[in-house]
Recover the amino acids of this structure.
DNA sequence: TTACAGTGTTTGAACGTTCAAAGAATTAGG
DNA sequence: CCTAATTCTTTGAACGTTCAAACACTGTAA
């Protein structure tokens, strides 16, 4: 709950400059709109959310279409719990299979089924088109590189 | 559900270039990490999520600390339903009050209470510090302007 | 060998968001 | 006017995510 703790004195605060405020406002709009835009499009296409598609895409590129849960979580930036629930959903649809690894009995491998693979293949063109439409068609080549660097800086831990 | 519709032929797809892929990967990480980072910090500070803080911030700057639901939804980029639930939560805490407008009886005004205002005041310095830490301290002044333009382009409808 | 810390994964309840539906008040057109 | 379309807001169920707790297995070190 609330902790009224060592807060900086209001006078000492380095408030945002005008251009920082503007950037922050726009960034917030992206954070709110982009994920739901993709979720909406993918849901319409195949009742999928963006992170689910991404996980399937990762799996489809992995050797044997198979990855350790931990590896997926790291690549897709998901918590173990979130991934576990997510894989559960995909499993229920028959798109992914779970089976324990042979060497380390703690680890679970997630494998894309043939149907799962077919779904990714089917969805990929549309998804790429959407990414273009919602992101890259709106940017110059220079801005794409700027975005890479900016996003990498922000996403770094 | 699934609709196997006019999908572009796989051969015709304009796949992402190498640098677009990189930008997309980094952007995805931002979309996943930044919101939960802020939610975590605000939750720890006062059991609030980012959008709730933003709504309170908007209200705190409005004349009479009061705004129509529609106006908040537009500014904060929230669906009517999402906002209604959100205001309900803030109301339950005594930070916001709901009352019907006098001229148009359909519209509801949300007003920040004294306690609500105090909370925003108390949280603002910490929040600004967090925004700096997670975003602007990581960017050059030039990148801040680039971010403004890029984010505005992506967020545009 | 046993104990203990660490790793990999799951579980279920609590929470915030979405979605479709609805109600209530206003506006526009005939 | 009267009706129909539109606007503003809420509701509740379904869904995905978070969080804390738990369990099983591995590694380590006494």
């Amino acid at each position: 709950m609330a902790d009224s703790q060592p807060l900086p004195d209001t006078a000492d605060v380095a408030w945002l400059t005008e251009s920082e405020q503007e950037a922050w406002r726009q960034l917030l709009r992206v954070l709110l709109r982009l994920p739901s835009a993709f979720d909406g499009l993918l849901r319409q296409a195949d009742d999928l959310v963006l992170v689910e598609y991404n996980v399937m895409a990762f799996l489809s590129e992995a050797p044997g279409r198979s990855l350790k849960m931990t590896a997926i979580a790291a690549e897709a930036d998901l918590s173990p719990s979130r991934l576990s629930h997510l894989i559960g959903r995909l499993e229920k649809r028959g798109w992914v299979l779970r089976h324990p690894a042979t060497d380390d009995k703690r680890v679970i491998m997630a494998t894309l089924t043939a149907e799962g693979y077919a779904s990714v293949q089917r969805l990929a063109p549309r998804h790429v088109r959407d990414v273009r439409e919602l992101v890259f068609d709106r940017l110059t080549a220079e801005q794409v590189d700027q975005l890479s660097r900016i996003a990498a800086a922000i996403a770094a831990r």
About this structure: The radius of gyration of chain A is 20 Å.
